[in-house]
Amino acid sequence: MRLLEFDYFEPRNLEDAVTKVREFDGNYQIIAGGTDLLTALKQRLSAPAGLVSLDHISSLKDIWEEDDVITIGAMCTLEDVLSSSLIAEKLPALNQAAWDVGSPLLRPLATIGGNICLNTRCRFYNQSSFWRSSRDTCYKAGGNICHVTNKRDSCVATFSADIPPVLIAHGARVRLAGPKGVRTLPLEQFYTADGRFPHVIMAGSGEILQEIEVPLPAPQVSCVYHKFRMRESIDFPVLGVAVMLKLGEKKSGKYCEDACLVITGAEPAPVEAVQAREELLHRRLEPGLLARVAEIAASEIHPIKTSLISPRYKREIAKIIVTDALKKAGGIEE
Amino acid sequence: MEKTIRLTVNGEEKTLKIGVQQTLLEVLREDLGLTGTKKGCNQGECGACTVLLDGKPVSSCLLLAVKADGKTVLTIEGLAQAGELHPMQQAFNEKGAIQCGFCSPGMILVAKSLLERNPNPSTQEIKEAIAGNICRCTGYLQIIEAIRSFVS
Amino acid sequence: MKKRGKGIACVIYGIGNTGMANPSSAFVEICVDGSAIVLCGAVDMGQGTSTALVQIAAHELGLDAEDVVIRTGNSAVTPDAGLSTASRQIYISGNAVKRAAAAAKQVIMEEAATVLNGTVDDLEARNGFVTDKKTGAQISFGELVSKARAKGKLAVGAGSFNPASGALDEDGQGDAYATYHYCTQIAEVEVDTETGEVEVISIVAAHDAGKAINPQAIEGQIEGGVAMGLGYGLMEEVVTDQGYLKTPSLAEYLIPTSLDLAATIRPLIVEVIEPTGPFGAKGMGEPPTCPTAAAIANAVYDAVGVWVSELPLTSEKVYNALEKAGKLEKTDPLGAPALA
After folding, report:
1. Is residue B26 classed as helix, strand or coil in its secondary structure?
2. Do A210 and A309 belong to one domain?
3. Phi-psi region of C227 (alpha: psi -120 to 50; beta: other; left: phi over 0)
4. What is the ipTM of this complex?
5. How far is C305 from chain A (nearest CA, A)?
6. How far away is chain C from the Cα of B137, in angstroms, using its nearest Cα?
7. What is the span of the domain harbouring residue C136?
8. Percent of chain A topping pLDDT 70
9. A204: which residues sit within 8 A by CB, 6+ positions away?
């Protein structure tokens, strides 16, 4: 399948990029690494009049630490993330999540910004136009029926990116450049929970993801990412979880001072398991507690059959990988 | 929309007028006639279209050629010198690491790039390096064996 | 918790088409430079038949394999060899090539008997020379072809072979194949009793290929076949729903990657000479794929005591089977929360 023709722009700075995006008045797509976008364009999931490439905006390609914040340019490739000693040392879970994305042939191209802005996925949507033509066009592709729920005006396509859970667990913020200037917002607020337009940029804000700001974790913070997938390479997660624990030490043992659990692969947005967090806070880390917390976390996701994996199995997997991630983050031996 | 790009392909500098919607794979196979780079799934799932871009293995079906402007591309055709196979090609031959041959160009380029970064990879590191290249014939064992033959 | 088990599966596999004629043919010519050309329609799509047919021709002729070239799979040039299916090309085309080579060789052997003043029975052809075993006198293939040619004779031969497969009766019964491949595989697996994931630890694959014409290629066929069988057993599935294909691409129809083949595959070649095969060889292209999934399923039963009667054994199916049998095992018990 070949790509349809489009115009292609390579602005040299963010202002020009924002202007170009505005000129297109919605009929454009931003291209970062392009590994997910090109597949979608080949499948005719969209046919933008123009692509705005961020390749030549050099300010988007740095990783640096300043005033207890690690800033990562949106155009850093996953390979850049993996080869950053700063990230390996200070944000090992981010390193792990970057390693878990795609395959070695995609990571030199795919960017961290692209992973954050990844479109949601569904077995009725991510298919060739020929395959899709045997059914009515689904809501996400511009039609008026969801083949998963049989509802007319909603989309339950699943958020499947590996990196955002880790960033949310670390309390990261994203810096967005748009027609009204620059703003930052907590990454969890970047997502809309709408399968059709899963984040503010796809929802039409006309903005460009500039960089990600991750507060330097306190020494007592431990964060891990666990991904469950069908194969050991290439595949999107069946389910993934990032667990951040801030540990305190008392005579009675380690306890949880703060925590954050974020699950990907279950719903149209990454899900923060807030009740599970509540259950953990100020409690002593013991295997029994961890399994209980995992049960609660699994009850907080509402998976739906957007892949070949059943929602019920996803819940069961959630319990297992959340337990494993909690143990690892808590330094509890098997 | 057309654009002129400069590519160094297998050591040769090329100035090419391309359509911006062309993938690097299409430019290599159709504009330059370098059909050693295979078109498999055309959606980044199989690795048959692997080339080295500035020394790193990438799926050329998911890379717009315009994004490779100014970069160096190595395809399987660039390995043999003066009629002599590259040592990695020879090793694949000797170890039986080729059957139908469709994954071989990508596998060989990945192997070459791995050894340049890491001259003594463990078996696990070899498996990780080729984990984006699907092989349907060999079960990967003779491929891993061929790459291991360079490890001291 | 992870539990290990072992399973075994055996296959008897008929070589060639079932209960019907399926002949093959080949031409061989020995050239004036002493090399030989084999023409045979057998298509090699990576399984190594071209190499093995060259080896068969070279061995029959008394030439080094380097001095034999083969042209295959072009109906404008090559005679009909039937399909590269049913693991039939080495057994059937191998015999055709061997017969064609013998016929071409007969021309130069007779010429050598004349030139060396001996009898064909005393002659031996090796490495491109014909030697009189009694006198030690020798002459090259090239010279013999030149001399024969001067007398109007060319060193060409045609050969064909049709396996002695019996016809089937109206119930579809009968001696359907001339020969059979036999194989046994043993799988060792580790089953995660929480998730249902199955990891294959090792597979030992013993295959009776008759005479192993090219052992390295046969090992490649075994390893590749086992890898396909492992994919078939654990993840590969064409799923349809009311006629809609749910696994139309490699994103859904999952083929094992290098990291999914953690198993050590140990190929064992068992050489039981097949009297009707070329130098005792039989076919062995497809059989290695056949027993793997069954051996894995048996190993899963051995490990956790549940049968999963539908392939592939995805983690979800194994999980469901474990749950139904009450055999899910949680590593971590639920406990009462304790404040620090």
Report:
1. helix
2. no
3. alpha
4. 0.96
5. 21
6. 5
7. 24-160
8. 99
9. A26, A197
CA–CA dist C59, C126 (Å, integer): 9
As a CATH number, domain B2-78 is: 3.10.20.30
User: Per the structure, how many domains does chain A have?
Assistant: 3
Answer yes or no: pTM beyond 0.90. Answer: yes
Closest Cα to residue C203, out of C182, C179, C173, C224? C224
Asked if the structure places residue A130 within a domain, the reply is no
Q: Given C29, C219, C274, C286, which residue is catalytic?
A: C286
Alpha carbon of A262: minimum distance to chain C alpha carbons (Å): 20
Q: Give a yes or no: residue C340 inside a domain.
A: no
Tell me the chain C residues in contact with residue B131 when contact means C-beta distances shorter than 8 Å.
257-259
Does the beta-carbon distance from C250 to B45 stay under 8 Å?
A: yes
| Residue of C258, C264, C269, C289 to mutate for B, most B C-beta atoms under 10 A | C258
Assigned domain for C335 exists: no
Q: How far is CA B59 from CA A76, B32, B35, B62, B140, in A?
A: 18, 17, 15, 6, 19
Each residue of C225-251: pLDDT tens digit? 999 999 999 999 999 988 999 999 999
A33 vs A52: CA distance, rounded Å: 12
**Side chain identity, residue A121:** R
| Active-site residue flag, C197 | no
Task: Give strand pairing partners of A173.
Answer: A186, A213
**Residues C200 and C118 grouped into a single domain:** no
Which of B20, B128, B132 has the CB atom closest to A8's CB atom?
Answer: B20
- Structure-block tokens of residue A317: 């997997």
> How is residue C92 written in tokens?
């059937």
Structural domain count of chain C: 2
Instruction: Pull the structure tokens for residue C182.
Output: 């036999």
Q: Clarify whether residues A112 and A240 are in a common domain.
A: no
